[in-house]
């Protein structure tokens, strides 16, 4: 199963996410009951009414949180809200996985404020997040996620709209997204984007919940069979779009999904020897793959297109190598999502021509069918050692590995 969070138009807040999860199928009564049990752990705050209702947001029917509270609080220590969340998870008897998630969410919020203001975490005070709203969001969402068994699902997130313009709060006015949002998303692998809404579309609570729920960002919906959809409405209204968060749940095609960088550059004055050496150097820098294609460019000039697949952590080293080795004056960079057939790495000892060799191979499994591929470096080494062709060596090793695999399956 796969779950896709779609905050690319309206962003995300705690109440929007909670409503979308309930609309997706989470037990509303269980969520409300758990929240009411948590109320007693925050002093000077009372929930007068809590419910969910269907409304229209710019032509889209969605679920909205109805929350009426009575409280006289303008700030709270972060540690006070954290303790209330810890006590709540115990009171409701949430699972260990759910409990750790809830605590991680408030820890992320406290850590962000600590870094921004340059103070110890135990000294952090919340202003906007001091309301019982924060407790309602985190506890309610944790209950809903556990009720839907989403902690065990693959969760993907599309680019997150953060809005634009400026935002005013207890510390004054600053450009949007505010520092807390940027700090929370820093190093999370999730992608944010601004737009012309001139409003804060993603709240710190929504952000901290999201980064603790998934690290997988995608630019497009994956290949999936849609089974259910949840629509969670925010409190604000906008003229040009529906202030609604979508969550889509369905079955995927069995692939693993990740994101990579595609680097491309055209070189037309580099010899084949340099290009051959370039492939080795780039692979040594951690690239996933390198391809070189011959082509024709403007004025009929012959060229070589160098295309490299790499990840964020190897990007700088690969770009440096491309420029230094080829003298190119520019490298094109784009993001790409990949579907990957699940695979595992294995090693076995095989006797061949009176000698024992360690053979490494990758085993893949897809829709009930399995296959494996022997590492070419091992094929080459063993082929030279026994003085046989690579083709003959591979045929023998495959038979031996298949015997071992069948023996393992039977046992």
Structural account:
The protein has 411 residues and is an alpha+beta fold. The chain contains 11 helices and 19 strands. Helix 1 runs parallel beside helix 5 (132-147). The longest helix is centred in the first third of the chain and has 22 residues, at 96-117. It starts with a strand and ends with a helix. The model has no long low-confidence stretch (mean pLDDT 90).
Number of individual domains = 3
Order of helices and strands: EHHEEEHHEHEEEEHEHEEEHEEHEEEEHH
Protein structure class: alpha+beta
Helix fraction, binned, reads: 25-40%
Mean pLDDT: 90
Termini separation comes to 30 Å
Shape: globular
Number of helices: 11
Hey, roughly how much beta strand do the residues contain?
Answer: 25-35%
Question: What is the CA-based Rg, rounded?
Answer: 27 Å
Strand order of the largest sheet: 6-1-12-11
Instruction: Count all strands and give the number.
Output: 19
Q: Which residue ranges are poorly predicted, with pLDDT under 50 across at least 5 consecutive positions?
A: none
- Biggest sheet statistics: 4 strands, mixed
Summarize the structure.
With 411 residues, the chain is α+β, with helices and mostly antiparallel strands. The chain has helices at residues 14-24, 28-38, 78-92, 96-117, 132-147, 179-185, 204-213, 272-284, 315-326, 376-386, 390-410; strands at residues 2-6, 45-57, 60-71, 76-77, 125-126, 154-157, 160-163, 166-169, 172-175, 192-194, 224-233, 244-252, 256-267, 289-296, 302-310, 332-340, 343-352, 355-366, 369-374. The strands form seven sheets. The protein has a four-stranded mixed beta sheet.
